Amino acid sequence: MDPRAPAPALQEEAPVPHGSLSLPARLFLLGFDTEKGRVSGAPDLALSVRAAALVELARRRIISDVDGVVTPVFDARTGDPVLDELMELAEESRPRSWRTWIGYRSGAGLDTVRRQLASEGYLSAERKRVFGLFPVTRYGLERAGYVEVLRAEVLGALEGAEPAGRVDEDDAVLAVLAATGKLRRLIPGKARRTHKDRLDDLAARAGGMSPELRRSLGDIRAALAAAVKAAEAARASAAGGGGG
Question: Which domain holds residue 144?
């Protein structure tokens, strides 16, 4: 694929039905404790959200792996602020692998997701100053019912009796990334181990019919797992060898 080829025809050939919210936005919402109205049990949520953005762009065929390098279709845009911000970053940056992209400026991507969800009414945004000096924005969950339905759909994909090949592709992607990114409120460690084979089947489902896409999604999943493991090790080291 010519990385500087025009995008529209590619986007028309591979539409991705995702309703009103992108995969990274929904993945972020899955990190919430709906009773407390805040993110809980997801210390590496930024990495998971970035992985979801990469998956969605790959499914749209506007980024791909070219000889180990994540390569964008230049000037391709989706209309989604999170996805388009990442496309612009990919165009402006030096060549990077999936593994590097998982962590590169992932915090900025998380901020964009929060602002988008606040602007669309899924989150509340309260601006404060810490010690009267440093401005911060605190986000709370506004649409807990939406998140509960989303959680039920993703858990149904993971735990249900329906063959993986019939599961909705978005639900399959979200289940795999939530498990790999260790969103513990949604999929605890025991569930990850119990449903290991099912997660592999869902990962294959998420890749659709294209061998190239299946490889890309497999690489993104492996990159997310490695990034989370590294983040856990860093936290353990900072805590003096405590558990991650």
Answer: 23-231
Q: Is residue 240 part of a domain?
A: no
- Counting the structural domains of the chain, the total is 1
Quick check: 1 pLDDT over 60? no
Summarised one tens digit per residue, pLDDT across range 182-196 is: 999 999 999 999 999
Whether 52 is covered by a domain: the verdict is: yes
Q: Which of 29, 11, 33, 9 is nearest to 21 (CA)?
A: 29
pTM of the model: 0.89
**Is residue 6 in some structural domain?**
no
**The domain that contains 168 carries what CATH number?**
1.10.3630.10
